[in-house]
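Re: the pair you flagged

First of the two:
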Amino acid sequence: MTREELRQRFRVLCVDIITMANALPKSYSGQVIARQIIRSSTSSAANYSAVCRAKSVRDFINKLKVVEEELDETEFWLDIIVRTKILQQDKASALKDETNELLSIIVASLKTVKSNQHS
């Protein structure tokens, strides 16, 4: 998968999460969670774009770590949304699957670049 294909996957996830968040209840908890998950998902997408423009291996690793943290937070909020029954699991499962797939790719990339750095 190319960087551009991965960048597009981040953007699609971001748009899908914004769409889902806009459908959350207008209750206090629904709105707080909506803001949090929008923030973390958009941050992961924006920071992945920054990864693609990293100036050094160290910069690349640091930016990838931010992406990892933001994806992990996005997955956390998706889990909370399901656990609190704000959204049914079947409606959140595709978002959760894509978040976890992207997270796996980022973690694998971090392992690879760190391994190559020590070689």
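Second of the two:
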Amino acid sequence: MAWVLLLVAAALEICWAVGLKYTHGFTRLWPSVLTILAMVASMYLLALAARTLPIGTAYAVWVGIGAVGTAALGILLFDEPRDAARLACLGLIIAGVLGLRLLEHG
């Protein structure tokens, strides 16, 4: 169950990170409200997952999934760079997240 909470927390991290773009520096009300709600929910679920999982693993997986997901949406939604070096680096993050999951015993 902790891994499910962690995956939902990471998905919400992607939501709030991308949401930051739509807040225009927190000057737009509804995008700002939704972004803040996603932040709070993401942190709460991370905290719940960390009750069972080691904090180093939980945080690294949360950040890794969030970083890769946010970068992927940046490419898709905002036409951010998609060069081979950037994609290779994102692949390394994915490998690290998978490695942590495979090595986890919790």
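The chain has a mean pLDDT of 95.

-B.
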